[in-house]
């Protein structure tokens, strides 16, 4: 289904070399039957002409806030109210800086400042500009206003340098927009909990034992659930990743904290336990920093098993899904885990394989079902975001059956 059909997109093109790609973006959006109005910033007009934008979008192009013609015909408020969504592509570091500070000195920034709509920003700039501390701060600032950032991508730039800063591919931008409208159109409300990332099991106030989990697979699952209209709570151990601002996000350190937050977040329809929870914790946690002149002998005890406990909880979600990382006997170990944990599905990955698992953008998983009538399935190696979409597709099918 095309969720972009008949949607009104207000596209702002600011002045970067990637502006030429916006012409393709307009073409693709019109093919998907969007209605498009465009604002070209002063810099934008240096890279693409109002005439080419107008002919592709089949609509008028707006540019100068002080134009008498524009002000009588359409003002900055009504232009923003007209749109279902505002898309800024490419967004230069300059327009991002202005938006972060509320500077409204042209039509584009005035419309954004006056907007009550969802704003999507596709940054495109040189890698050094992207990585500059001021730009990083500005990005964090606009994220805190709930603006969504698409990209940038990594690769070779127009200037010949290499790194993060290329505007996201058109296909990717379209998918993000489609997901957004899909999440709004789905009004059957399910609730989900996802755990992700590692846990830290403390030895003393400054030292801990942890693992290499990045949280990527769990964050992608949470994002996909949300994109499918499911109200999602993501409970995460320490991770560098930033979740979508619409996801209820709870940060934890230890397995105990993760369990507590999970129980507090019940009831829900589906719980997906993606976190790499520490299997052991230190028995006698030292209140003071342990001195190095002493011998260090640590006693461990089994940690709380969140998946097992939630599977037995009176408030057990309709569907409880565990993950398992295995290096051998994937089938046997996963079937045993299904029984032992009491959950409904186990999603297993063979971590002995190269290029998948910890910190990678890729994964390959097998799904084992408690229901003996349903055969095991494999999702072959692909992006973790695609694995997430595949899992969520199956979750939604199952929830609609229960
Ligand atoms: O027993 P194992 O660690 O292989 O089980 C993995 C699954 O159990 C994962 O879904 C993980 O999130 C969950 N788990 C948990 N609490 C633990 C250990 C694992 O919830 N203490």
- What structural class do you assign from the helix and strand content? alpha/beta
CATH architecture of the largest domain: 3-Layer(aba) Sandwich
**Average pLDDT:** 92
Strand content: 15-25%
Taking all Cα atoms into account, the compactness measure Rg is 24 Å
What is the makeup of the main sheet?
8 strands, mixed
Helix count?
15
Number of strands: 20
Helical residue percent band: 25-40%
Note poorly predicted spans. none
The CATH topology label of the largest domain is: Rossmann fold
How many structural domains does the protein architecture include? 2
What does this structure look like?
The protein is an alpha/beta fold and 402 residues long. The protein folds into two domains: 8-185, Flavin prenyltransferase-like (Rossmann fold, 3-Layer(aba) Sandwich); 188-283 and 292-399, Rossmann fold (3-Layer(aba) Sandwich). The protein contains 15 helices and 20 strands. The chain has an eight-stranded mixed beta sheet with strand order 13-12-9-14-17-18-19-20, with helices on both faces. The protein has a six-stranded parallel beta sheet with strand order 3-2-1-4-5-6, sandwiched between helices. The chain has a two-stranded antiparallel ribbon with strand order 7-8. The protein is globular, with a radius of gyration of 24 Å. The two termini are 24 Å apart. The relative contact order is 0.09. The chain binds cytidine-5'-monophosphate.
């Amino acid at each position: 289904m095309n969720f972009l059909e008949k949607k009104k997109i207000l596209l702002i093109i600011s002045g970067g070399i990637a502006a030429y790609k916006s012409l393709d973006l307009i073409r693709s959006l019109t093919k998907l039957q969007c209605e498009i109005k465009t604002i070209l910033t002063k810099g934008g007009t240096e890279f693409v002409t109002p005439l080419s934008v107008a002919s592709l979008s089949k609509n008028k192009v707006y540019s100068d806030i002080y134009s008498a013609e524009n002000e009588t015909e359409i003002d900055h408020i009504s232009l923003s109210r007209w749109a279902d969504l505002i898309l800024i592509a490419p967004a230069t570091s300059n327009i991002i800086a202005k938006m972060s500070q509320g500077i409204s000195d042209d039509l584009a920034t005035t419309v954004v400042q006056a907007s009550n709509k969802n704003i999507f920003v596709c940054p495109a700039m040189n890698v050094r500009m992207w990585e500059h501390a001021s730009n990083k701060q500005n990005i964090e600032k606009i994220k805190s206003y709930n603006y969504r950032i698409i990209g940038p991508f990594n690769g070779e730039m127009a200037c010949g340098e290499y790194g993060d800063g290329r505007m996201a591919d058109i296909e990717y931008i379209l998918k993000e927009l489609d997901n957004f409208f899909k999440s709004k159109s789905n009004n059957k409300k399910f609730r989900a909990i996802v755990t992700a990332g590692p846990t830290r099991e403390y030895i003393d106030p400054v030292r801990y034992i942890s693992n290499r989990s990045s949280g990527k697979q769990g964050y992608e699952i949470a994002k996909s659930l949300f994109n499918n209209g499911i109200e999602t709570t993501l409970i995460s151990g320490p991770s560098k990743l930033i979740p979508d601002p619409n996801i209820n996000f709870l940060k934890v350190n230890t397995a105990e904290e993760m369990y507590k937050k999970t129980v507090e977040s019940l009831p829900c329809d589906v719980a997906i336990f993606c976190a790499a929870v520490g299997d052991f914790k230190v028995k006698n946690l030292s209140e003071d920093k342990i001195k190095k002149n002493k011998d260090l002998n640590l006693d461990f005890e089994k940690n709380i098993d969140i998946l097992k406990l939630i599977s037995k909880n009176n408030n057990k979600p309709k569907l409880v899904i565990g993950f398992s990382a295995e290096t051998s006997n994937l089938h046997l170990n996963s079937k045993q885990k299904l029984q032992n944990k009491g959950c409904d599905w186990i999603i297993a990955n063979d971590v002995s394989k190269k290029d998948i698992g910890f910190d990678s953008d890729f994964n390959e998983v097998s799904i084992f079902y408690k229901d003996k009538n349903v055969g095991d399935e494999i999702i072959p190696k692909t992006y973790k975001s695609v694995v997430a979409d595949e899992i969520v597709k199956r979750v939604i099918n199952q929830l609609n059956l229960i």
